[in-house]
Amino acid sequence: AGEGKRIAFFVSDLSNVFHQSQASAAEKYAMDKYGAEVVVFDGQADSAVMTQNVDQIVAGGFDAATLHIWDAEAATPGVNDALDEGIVMTSFFSPITDTGIPTARSDEASVSFEMGAQMATAWKEAHPDKPIVMVQLGWPNHTEVNSGRTSPFVEGVMSVDPGAENLGALDSSKGQEAAKQIVVDLLTQRPEVNLIYSEASNLTVGTMAGLSQLGRGKFEDGKPLTEIVASVDFDAVEFDQVFDPNSSLKVSMGLPPLETAQGRIDLIMDVLDGNVEAKAEPAQEYFYKAYTISYWSMEKDDAQDWLSAQFGG
Amino acid sequence: MSSLTENIPQSLQREKMSDEGFITSLVVIVAVALFLLASLLVPNFFQWQNVVNLVTNNWAVISLGIFVSFLLVSGNFDLSVGGIVALSGVLSVWFAQSPDGANALSSGLGMPYPLAILCALIGALAIGAMNALFVVRLGIPSIIVTLGTMMVARGIAQVITQGSQRNTNLPDEFGFLGNLTMFGTSVKLPVVLMLLLFLVAVFVERKMVFGRITYWIGANPEAATLSGINRSWHITKLYLFSAAVAGMVGILLASEFKSGFSNRGTLMEFDALVIALLGGIAITGGFGSVIGMFFGAIILAVVTSAATGMVLSPDWQFILKAIAVFLAIVTQTWAVARRNR
Amino acid sequence: MTGPQTHTVLSVSGLTKDYPGVRAVDDVSFAIEGGTVHCLVGENGAGKSTLVKMLTGALDPTSGSMSVNGNEYTPNSPQDARKGGVATLFQELHVVDELTVLENLTLGMERSWFGFLVKSELEERAVKTLAAIEPSIDPSARVSRLSVAQKQIIEIARAASSGANIIIMDEPTAALSEREVERLFGVIRRLRENDVTVIYISHKLDEIFELGDNVTVLRDGKHIVTKPLADVDGRSELIEMMIGRTVFQSYSPRGTVGNKVVLKAQGLTTSLLKDVSFDIKEGEIVGFYGLVGAGKTEIARALYGADSFEGAVDFKGKPVGRTPTAAIASGIALVPEERRTQGLFTNLTIRENIPVMNLPRVSRGGVFKAADVQDAAHQYVEQLSIATSSIEKHTEKLSGGNQQKVVFAKCLFSNAELLLLDEPTRGVDVGAKSEIYDIIKDLADQGNAVAVFSSELEEILGICDRVFLMFDGHLQEEIPNGPDVDISHILNVVTGGQESVAQ
Amino acid sequence: MTSYSNQTSSAARFTSFLRNYYIYFVLVAVVVLLSTANLDQFALFERGNFLYKRNIINILRVSAPLLVMAGAFTLLMVSGYIDLSVGSAMSLSAVVYAMLAINGVPFIPAFALTVLVGVLLGAVNGFLVVRLNITPVIATLITLSLFKGVALLLVQDGVSAIKSGNFLKIPGWFNDYGRAKVLFDLPAAFWVAVAVTLALIVVQNRGKLGKYAAATGGNPTAAKLSGINTGRTVFLLYVIVGASAALAGIARSSFMSLGDPLSGDGMELTAILVVLLGGTAFSGGEGKVLRSFVGALIIMMLTVGMLTIVPAYYQTLVIGSALLAAAASNHLVSRKGKES
Ligand SMILES: Nc1ncnc2c1ncn2[C@@H]1O[C@H](COP(=O)(O)OP(=O)(O)OP(=O)(O)O)[C@@H](O)[C@H]1O
Ligand SMILES: Nc1ncnc2c1ncn2[C@@H]1O[C@H](COP(=O)(O)OP(=O)(O)OP(=O)(O)O)[C@@H](O)[C@H]1O
Ligand SMILES: [Mg+2]
Ligand SMILES: [Mg+2]
Question: Could you tell me if the CB of C59 is within 6 A of ligand 1?
Answer without folding.
Answer: no
